[in-house]
Amino acid sequence: MLVYGKSDDGKGYDVLRRRGEELQAGKLRPLDDGKPIYGQVVRLTPRQESPALFDVDVQHDGRGSTGRPAKVASDQYREGWDSIWANGAPNRALN
User: Is residue 7 situated within a structural domain?
Assistant: First the structure.
């Protein structure tokens, strides 16, 4: 991987990566807690011949995911659920 500049937003780096015979342009960004992973998690090992060249070791490949966040219940969802279904003790009287 060749790191050649900062990304437009300043939070990552622009990179070129060779995979087999293919050359790909991409972005390298730090992992952030609680944010989804849309690509690969990689470990970079610098090469001695150039400070901008790195060997890439893929730690996790998130490209096969759906691209959507996990389905989790928010506080608003729980409040709505409770307002509909949590109306106190159930009515045990026979019909």
Answer: yes
- CB neighbourhood size of 56 (10 A): 16
End-to-end CA distance of the chain: 72
User: pTM, whole model, 2 decimals?
Assistant: 0.60
User: DSSP string of 56-69?
Assistant: EEEEEE-TTS-SS-
Q: Is residue 56 part of a domain?
A: yes
Nearest to 18 by CA among 47, 60, 55, 43: 55
User: What 8-state DSSP symbol labels residue 16?
Assistant: E
Structural domain containing residue 6:
2-67
* Secondary structure (3-state) at 14: strand
**Tens of pLDDT along the chain (95 residues)?**
999 999 998 999 999 999 889 999 999 999 988 887 888 999 999 999 999 999 999 998 877 655 555 566 777 877 777 777 766 666 667 76
Domain count, the chain: 1
